[in-house]
Design goal:
With about 210 residues, this protein is mainly alpha-helical. The protein has a single domain, classed as Methane Monooxygenase Hydroxylase, Chain G, domain 1. It contains 9 helices and 3 strands, in the order H-E-E-H-H-H-H-H-H-H-E-H. It has a 3-stranded antiparallel β-sheet. The longest helix has 24 residues.
């Protein structure tokens, strides 16, 4: 596999990593797509915890921020960075990679009823694709959240969050989730939340 096939594989790894880390951090996952548009190669949605206006206290050192606020923001930063980190860790497909095995093809065929989008999900997909060029990139979102949380310490905080993201994505748990979802995403391009959850549940024994 070379050229466009390599890029598609890495995009699947990238978007799957966002979803896998969101799942591990107990954020409900949404649509995951590697269907290319003019502005984007894909996306992975998850439900974010709401942060109340005025919660940030820029005059405080990061360590003195309310614990729940810090965990919420730092979780979102790690999710945002997960895709880029996963690509670095994955590299190109292994030599001889040919896509799905026979067993994987059978699993995909058995799950097609869960892979189909319902009308509401189709509408959401088109809305996301039509507005994705208006959204910040993963790095922009992560660095913006670091600045909101850490202020003048943002550069150091962002570097620390990148190291945390590397550790989380490299963990056996997240790597199992990525390995399970990538073949399915390559087969279907777009997966609804219920199928993503079903795949993660089948391989993630740590998520009660």
């Amino acid at each position: 596999m070379t050229g466009g096939a390599d890029e598609r594989y890495l995009m699947a790894v990238h978007e799957t990593a966002h979803a896998a880390v969101a799942h591990v951090l107990r954020r409900p996952v949404g649509l995951v797509s590697i269907r290319p548009t003019a502005e984007s190669g894909g996306f992975a949605r998850h439900r974010c915890e709401r942060i109340k206006p005025g919660t940030f206290r820029p005059e405080l050192p990061t360590i003195l921020m309310p614990a729940r606020l810090r965990r919420t923001v730092e979780s979102e930063i790690v999710i945002s960075l997960a895709g880029q980190v996963a690509e670095i860790l994955a590299g190109p497909p292994a030599p001889g990679y040919r896509g799905l095995t026979d067993d994987e093809r059978q699993a995909v065929a058995a799950s097609r009823s869960l892979a189909a989008l319902d009308p509401r999900e189709e509408s959401e997909l088109h809305e996301i694709e039509s507005t994705i060029d208006q959204q910040p990139t993963d790095s922009e979102r992560a660095s913006g959240l670091s600045y909101a949380l850490a202020g003048d310490e943002a550069a150091q905080h962002f570097s620390w969050m990148r190291a945390v993201a590397m550790s989380v994505v490299a963990s056996d748990r997240v790597q199992r989730l990525i390995a399970a979802l990538v073949p399915e995403l390559l087969a279907h391009e777009v997966l609804p939340p219920r199928r993503v959850r079903a795949i993660f549940k089948s391989v993630d024994t740590e998520h009660a």
